[in-house]
Amino acid sequence: MSPGEIIRYLVTWGIIGAVLFSFFVLFVFRSGAVYTTRNEDGLLKEKIPLRGYLTSGLFLLSIVGFLVLANYFGLVRQNILLSFGPLYFLNLSLYLILFLFDTIVIDGLVLGYWRPAFLKLPDAMGWDSMKVHIIKSIPVGAFFGLIISLVSTAITYFVFV
């Protein structure tokens, strides 16, 4: 896989993922589903109900699904077959692009600074709480990224390659 193909893959699927993620954020805030796991200040609840774990689990599975679809349509269907290691690092790179989009654009700029009325954000969720959320989410998001990338790579590798 050439450097140009890698960049094209990451840019294309990074943009698609960012758009899908933006719609997801809009949905969870408008529906109130975000509050199954978070307090009104945006931080995780001390005691998360079962519905919150199910919502979070479904979200993590959707990221795995997105990465597998990106691999299938962006690589396998283009006859770009990679060994496990390079495929894992490509998945991890795409995950990190989406994680940075979530952390910087969604959490920092949209939720912390812009705070658009159509999201119906509570007053408690502002820049100060988003700073705390961002700092806490970096190690957690990085850890889950390693696992999510491994799972999506294994699925792609053992099903399609």
Structure description:
- The chain is an all-alpha fold.
- The chain has one domain (about 5-160).
- It is built from four helices and no strands.
- It has helices at about 5-30, 50-75, 85-115, 125-160.
- Helix 1 (about 5-30) packs across helix 3, helix 2 (about 50-75) packs across helix 4 (about 125-160) and helix 3 packs antiparallel against helix 4.
- The longest helix has about 35 residues, at about 125-160.
- The two termini are about 15 Å apart.
Q: How do you describe this structure in short?
A:
This protein has 161 residues and is an all-alpha fold. The protein is built from four helices and no strands.
Question: Which spans of ≥5 residues are poorly predicted at pLDDT below 50?
Answer: none
Q: Please provide the count of β strands.
A: 0
Strand content: under 5%
Main beta sheet: none
Report helical residue fraction: over 70%
What radius of gyration results from the CA coordinates?
A: 17 Å
Number of domains: 1
Shape: elongated
Category by helix and strand content? mainly alpha
Terminal CA distance reads: 15 Å
- The tally of helices reads 4
Describe how the helices and strands are arranged:
Blueprint (H helix, E strand, L loop, with lengths): L2 H29 L18 H25 L9 H31 L12 H34 L1
Helix pairs in contact: 1-3, 2-4, 3-4
